[in-house]
């Protein structure tokens, strides 16, 4: 966001002695909490079968099917409330302080898992995980967008899903080889590590300027860009600061802006259109089924009749998901966002359709023993291809298209809506499996992925290599390419 003079895709090069190592380190530091959240999300898949089994670690014994769906879905309820809290906090206390605060509910989540002995404590744990998830989903993309140079904004933005997926795989692996309580004791330390490491990184320059802390903003920008005291670097620093000051001065007085933002600020066509696009994007992200599939991975493979051990299958899927996410970090700033999103949506639809077809044939008592590899192969392919484009680009595009003035409120609204949709999908996915079968659910998810590709092609402008001002101009003038 902040590199509008020297970091745009049009310039193509930067000075040889320019160092941006600290920018990458800041992005990685911020995403340690994404890694921690990934472990909290991935915890359910290996341990839900344990919780509903006679070997349940809870004092009351196995949880019921209804209790299991609440354990799965309460994360989304906690996230809905957390979105409102962290959206307010991001404007009141800043991006950095609010991001640090997300570690607290995640520490409490692992504490509840480690020491809780009743299903009610697990309900509280999942609500707390949701509270932390809301802050992470809202604040990590926001922080990265406001510190990144235009030319690598997509790459740094895609770190979010990559680290989230790494955390999910960590839980899959630990859940397969370590005990219920040992896993919780170890993963309890991750948010603490985040607190210790992220403290050294600065607040975003854009937020500091809005708070009239221009000197602090200059220090932050100098740190993030690796500027030295050489004349060339000082000139680059002044130029970039001038661009930020002009951007903020074009908005209302910074104090008013942060205390009086309301829905009326979405009256400009670009803001209103960005909000509507954001709401549709997050809806498609969840209705594609990927989050539900991750929550129920082990059970899905068991129900699909795969020959592979369900937990091992989940690990395979998690590893492939990471490969896809890493691929996204490599190509997101080299390929047009639109093309990447559309292609990944189309191929995800094909993979889901194939999995649904396998399930349908099995439900009709057709002998599918020769093709029992299809559930693992199809779901692995879907998670891989979605992790390259459909999943990470949702958050990259959302953080790019929202105008700076309403980014906090707009991001909160979209993230809150995401968690509402997520709750409905996760809570009622088992119900839908009962009503229309697993194959029917896969076909519905396939149709949603196709719709996502069409929506992007028709309504969303290309954002790769463009400054935020250029993106807003494209939104206002219906420029798609």
From TrEMBL:
Residues 22-464 form the Major facilitator superfamily (MFS) profile domain. The keyword Transmembrane applies. InterPro entries: MFS_dom, MFS_ERD6/Tret1-like, MFS_sugar_transport-like, MFS_trans_sf, MFS_Trehalose_Transporter. It comes from Anopheles coluzzii (African malaria mosquito). It is found in: Cell membrane. Pfam families: Sugar_tr. It is a multi-pass membrane protein. Keywords: Cell membrane, Membrane, Sugar transport, Transmembrane, Transmembrane helix, Transport. This is MFS domain-containing protein. One of its GO terms (molecular function) is sugar transmembrane transporter activity. GO terms for cellular component: plasma membrane. Coiled coil: none annotated. The chain crosses the membrane at residues 21-48, 68-87, 99-117, 123-144, 156-178, 184-201, 274-294, 314-332, 339-361, 373-397, 409-429, 435-460. The keyword Oxidoreductase does not apply. The lineage of its organism: Eukaryota, Metazoa, Ecdysozoa, Arthropoda, Hexapoda.
